[in-house]
Amino acid sequence: MAITVLLGYLGAALWSLRISFTSSRTFPADDYVGLLQYERLFENERWLLSLQNLCIYGVLFIVASMVIGFLLAVFIDQKVKGEGLLRTAFLYPYAMSFVATGLVWQWVLNPESGLQHSMRQLGWAGFTFDWIIDQDLVIYTVVIASVWQASGLVMALLLAGLRGIDEDIWKASRIDGVPAWRVYLSVVLPMLAPTLATVFVLLATGVVKVFDAVVSMTQGGPGTASDVPAKFIMDHLFGRANIALASAGAMVLLLTVLILVAPFLYARSRSHAAGQGGH
Q1: CA distance linking residue 105 with residue 74, whole number of Å
Q2: For the chain, domain boundaries
Q3: Is the predicted pLDDT of residue 279 greater than 80, yes or no?
Q4: In the CATH hierarchy, which fold is given to the domain comprising 15-278?
Q5: The whole model's pTM is what?
């Protein structure tokens, strides 16, 4: 297992790092050009646009998924009727591939055959929802599709955390007359901090590598309006035969993932060490 990790992951990362410092095009080259590829990368308007899209997508996707997932978890935690069916229904989208999700939402949001067309057929002649063909709004359609898919996973993780909270806390709050929203805000959410951190890391790493949903929904369009870094990398790697520039982009994404995951892993190791020290 360790050999697989070293050769398959670390080896590939180091190879990509080396290539990013060369002028390689279709085939790897051994010439060293320093940070030239990284300079070209951040002078490329398409790359900068893809980073901007990634920031917009990431903030909205993470916030919306966590809020909706938490509300769904709170709802199901009330021991509603048909709980098992509801859990399955909310979690089902996550079982779908991003490609399938993207294709479904592409159809739903298509102005000629989807939601806009259906509403106009029902008599709402002025109804307009053409975000998927609007350069300024198209990235938000990817957010909608991604939130729809990921919220169920967030719900499942947070529901497990809610079910682990001592019932005596709720009994005490009822006796003291504390509003439920205040208990969730002041007691429940702090107790769910480790679970929330896990959810955040999972969603954040998903943001960095988002690709399938964009390709299946918009192909990065209209034009390059919904482009993201992963698509930029794949296009330059396979479509434009510029593996050095693609490798530079890949290393930037890898560094982003490490920045996101490292604090979580550090805090987790500190917590584990403190737990062992307490024993």
Answers
A1: 27
A2: 15-278
A3: no
A4: MetI-like fold (1.10.3720)
A5: 0.89
